[in-house]
Amino acid sequence: MKRLGLVRTLKGAILFLAAMAALCYAVIFPQRIQEAGAAYNAAWMITPGIVCISISAVPIAIALVLFWQICTEIGRDNSFCHKNAGRLTAIGFCALIDTGYCAVGTVTLEILVGSAIWVLGLGVCTVGMSIALAAFLLSHLVLKAADMKAENDLTI
User: Fold this and answer.
1) How far, CA to CA in Å, does 68 sit from each of 4, 53, 71, 108, 139?
2) Angle 88-94-96 (CA atoms, 0-180°, nearest 5)?
3) C-alpha to C-alpha distance for 44 and 40, rounded to whole angstroms
């Protein structure tokens, strides 16, 4: 796949992920929270639950914007640069923050209502940690490649 085709595909995937996240946070999560509040006789938790789950969208949105910027640099044929390494590190931290937030929320729900949500939370935390580790690893590799590129640019 050529560079511009790759960039278009990646940006299309980002837009798809953003649309799916918007659907989940605007429709699916609030509906499931209301159903859970009714099922566990905890109507008082519906509004705080929606607010708490909405907060978790912030690191995801930041990570998608950073990934868009990485794709823009790839389109400019500047894949291996220090900015992209920093963006990948920031994506890793976004994943860690969201994973920690999810873990705290899962434990809180388990304590408050005793639901079996911890199974889903464990899966989400596993995926989040995997994304964080992959982002940190890619950041290191991009940084090394950027350093090698800078060294080669100085060589005549």
Assistant:
1) 14, 24, 5, 33, 15
2) 105
3) 11
What is the helix (H) or strand (E) element at residue 99, kind and residue range?
Answer: helix 82-113
Question: What Rg do the C-alpha atoms of the chain give, in angstroms?
Answer: 19
Q: How far apart are CA 115 and CA 100, in angstroms?
A: 19
* Residues 18, 90: Cα–Cα separation, whole Å: 18
The Cα 147–Cα 119 span in angstroms is 42
Mean pLDDT throughout 62-90? Answer: 97
pLDDT confidence of residue 1: 78
**Reported confidence tier of residue 132, pLDDT bands at 50, 70, 90:** very high
| CB count in 10 Å sphere of residue 142 | 22
Which two three-digit tokens encode residue 39?
Answer: 């099922």
pLDDT class for 116, splitting at 50, 70, 90? confident
pLDDT band at 39 (very low <50, low <70, confident <90, very high): confident
> 142 with 80: CB under 8 angstroms?
yes
CA-CA distance, 125 to 129, in Å (whole number)? 6
CB 57 within 8 A of CB 81: no
